[in-house]
Amino acid sequence: MTAVLRCVGVCLLTALTLLGSTGGALAVPLTTALPDAAASPSGPARTAPGTAEVREPQFLRLDIEEVTPSTVTTTSPRTVTVTGSVENIGDRRVEDVSVRLQRGPAVSTSEALRTSLTLDQSRFDTVGLFENVATDLDRGESATFSLSMPLQSVAEPSLNITDPGVYPLLVNVNGTPDYGGAARLDDARFLLPVLGVPGSGPDAPPVPPDTTSPVALTMLWPLADEPRLAAGLPGSVTEQVRLVDDDLSRSLDSGGRLDGLLGALEYATRDGTDRGRSVRDSTCIAVDPDLLITVTNMTRGYLVVDDPTEPAGAARPGAGEDAASAWLDRLRALASTTCVTAVPFAQVDLGAVASIGDPALSASALTAPADLVDRILGIESVRGFVWTDSGILSPAAAEMVRAQGPATALVAHNTVDDPVSGEFARLAPPEPTGGQLDALLFDPAVGAAFAAVGATPQTPSYTPQDARYDLTEDSRTARLQDALGAMTWAAVEPDRDTAPDSLLVVPPQLWTADADEAEALLATTTTLLRSGLATARPFTEILGRQPGSPRPTTLAAPQQAVADGVPEHVRAAAADQLPRIDSLTAALVDEPQAVLTPALFTSPLREDLLRAMSLAHRRDGLRGEAERAANTRVDEVATSLDDLFGAVTVVSPGGVYTLASEQGPLPLVARNDLPIGVRVRLHVQAPAEVIIDDIGPTQLPPRGSRTLTVPTEIADSRKLVVQFSLASEDGRQFGEPTSVTVRSNAYGQVLAILTAGAGALLLFLAGRRLWHRFRGQPDRADEGYERS
After folding, report:
1. For residue 282, what are the CA distances in angstroms to 260, 266, 278, 343?
2. Model confidence over 268-312: pLDDT tens digits?
3. Nearest-5° Cα angle at 594, 593 to 599
4. Contacts of 274 (CB under 8 A, 6+ apart)
5. Helix ranges (DSSP H) in 169-240
6. What is the per-residue burial (b if ≥16 Cβ within 10 Å, else e) of 647-664?
7. HEC profile for 314-351?
8. Cα dihedral sign for 586, 587, 588, 591?
9. Which residue, 324, 207, 303, is CA-closest to 258?
10. Are 696 and 681 in contact (CB under 8 A)?
11. SS3 for 446?
12. Transmembrane segments in this chain: where (predicted)?
């Protein structure tokens, strides 16, 4: 009986839904969610990225293409319009396709900026009418829609928004697939920021926001890219650099991603737009030095390799020299009047660097970037600040940062134990004598919303599990709306006990927002500042205002950071190559007059290891490509070092070398094919009969050779094989060993024995003869002489 009643209920609710979609008289409930096909178990559920759970077949895909207005103000239209498309992505036709708009409760906590987007559709309980999109959609077909709903109305369904705030909206699509019943087949969610509510009628006054407690706003504006320089190529002063592809030229050129990010900030901070310099004062550009190195080299002309696994192989001229020059000039001009800071080199995984424990590598990742940025841009960047790309600092990474001196690390608020209220936490050192390290905390919900904006949305490692879902389920427009909502929530939340009094906006370092998205976010920044909802707070002011003795706390890195980080095999491969780089650098000769120095020659190899440990694209859909690129880099560095060490060799004289006597010089030829001088020692493996003196360190000229005169002593007349090789001062071998066959023209040991025996016999006979003469006795040796 229960089953029959359930069946009757479902049929009745389905009928209500279908009637509602055609505007029938039974579609009367307007402010509560219809318990219709939307509750069907066949409806799609939001899933965490990478989950392997089995899902029901999906028939329709709904995309949001435009929301008007994207941010509601007191002067906005009174109606919200959402346009989009519905596509049949299933394996059968779908009939009676209809959509409607629903609203959920206003966001009341920071966490809800993300979790409200994962709620069941029944929680979006302010609903509109279903509107027909298509009578039927065959496989692969799509249809567009436009839904409009007033903010307030007493005569028709409305969103019932009466106060400023951030509201989650949902577009629901129903349909009837062939061989099935009516069901909710997809939905799309997004946030609608409402800074002020326009009047509901000609005589109704608007509802302005409360500006008595403006939020102190600071934004970091990242300029970074994935590593592009071909791996395994040592430094040169004459050869053009090589890139693995020419995508960066398109990014720097007009309409490209980096052009758009820079152009949006240029426009937002120009004198005519940024009255009072509030946007400029609240923004700090965060630059990846690896990007600057690459762009600077592009301005001199560059090559693009055909195969990244053969960096020294076939290549073609790059097309971005002019674009690189123009972009770099624009950045220099903007940086001269704006706050600038450097991020760790190539967005490297600081936890991976710390696990290797190489001081020189740590310095390349943390301290060298500021010097590089200052030298290339001609500025003085903000120092004493570390922004890890993951937004998380492991205990090992914290100790590495602490070792560099007093600093402030930027991390998500939920990655420290017992986080204090406010923006700062003093990280307790493992020992009382440890150096000072403070944590500057940012809102993880705001960071996650900004990370989802762009062509390749990413889910930061610090995002809680209940706020994680597959971002590709949302359109770019919807993800942008979420970022706008996250950015404005602190300013419009009426409960000041819940909302913070300051906002630090932290996008991901590799941010794939385009020009339109960047402009929309900066336009909202301008609106917040002009309306009095926010005040500009310079980034340097944040660092300068940290409390003198905040309560100590400890780090609480989530396990997700390990899964998103650089894998162990890449770390191990990098650790294996670092001693070889150090050994080669120490062996090279630093000539005062030479342009090519040892550091300039080997630093690209060390930087390649940092690039291999980059976190770029490790949290988005391009993770597989990032993994392959990392493997290629460490492999190419190892191969390059093999070639560099192999370029310094001992040349075998060939045949058998004969010494004129037991002792004599053995001439050898040492050759150096490197473009820089090298200091070597001769390493010898010889039989016990061969004694070879140590000739000490020898300097070989660049791309030249030198004859080595080796003092040799051989106590044998046989042919003996001696093995020679060249090595660095620390004993690391150059090239392959060379075997030399040597012998001596002297009789050697046999001759010495015969000579000694003959001498002894002569002495015996002479003594015997003298003895006989002394005693007056004839000696047999004198018999012949007596007769004569």
Report:
1. 19, 14, 6, 18
2. 999 989 989 999 999 999 999 999 999 999 999 999 999 999 999
3. 125
4. 268, 280, 526
5. none
6. bbbbeeeeeebebeebeb
7. CEEECCCHHHHHHHHHHHHHHHCCCEEEECCHHHECHH
8. positive
9. 324
10. yes
11. helix
12. 746-766
Domain 2-194: state its class. Answer: mainly beta
CB-count exposure of residue 570 (10 Å: 0-12, 13-18, 19+):
buried
Please name the helix (run of DSSP H) or strand (run of DSSP E) that holds residue 711, with its range, or none: strand 704-714
* Measured distance CA(711)–CA(387) in Å, rounded: 59
Distance in angstroms (rounded) separating the CA atoms of residues 108 and 392: 26
Beta strand 183-194 pairing with 165-177: antiparallel
Q: What is the pLDDT of residues 373-393, one digit of tens each?
A: 999 999 999 999 999 999 999
Give SS3 for 240: coil
Would you say the CATH fold of 648-744 matches that of 2-194? yes
pLDDT of residue 741: 80
DSSP per-residue string spanning 659-693? ESSSEEEEEEEEEE-SSS-EEEEEEEE--TTEEE-
C-alpha span between 391 and 53 (Å, rounded): 28
Per-residue confidence (pLDDT) for residue 35, from 0 to 100 = 38
Overall fold of domain 215-472+495-556: 7-stranded beta/alpha barrel (3.20.110)
pLDDT one-digit tens code per residue, 145-168: 999 999 999 889 999 999 999 999
- Tell me the average pLDDT across 8-34: 35
β-strands 656-659, 283-287: how paired? unpaired
Q: What pLDDT does residue 655 have? A: 62
* Overall average pLDDT of the 197-218 stretch: 91
According to CATH, what is the number of the domain 648-744? Answer: 2.60.40.10
DSSP per-residue string spanning 574-597: HHHHHHHHHHHHHHB---TT-SS-
- Beta bridge partners, 678, equal 588, 700
The mean per-residue pLDDT over the stretch 596-623 comes to 97
Q: Which residues contact 668 (CB under 8 A, 6 or more apart)?
A: 650, 651, 653, 682, 707, 708, 710, 724, 738, 740
Is the pLDDT at 208 greater than 90, yes or no? Answer: yes
The CA-based angle 781-783-788, given to 5 degrees, is 125
Q: Which residue has the tokens 């307790």?
A: 428
Cα distance between residue 680 and residue 702, in whole Å: 13
Nearest to 509 by CA among 341, 678, 729, 741: 341
Domain definitions of the chain by residue range: 2-194, 215-472+495-556, 570-646, 648-744, 749-787
Enter the tokens of residue 319: 């097309």
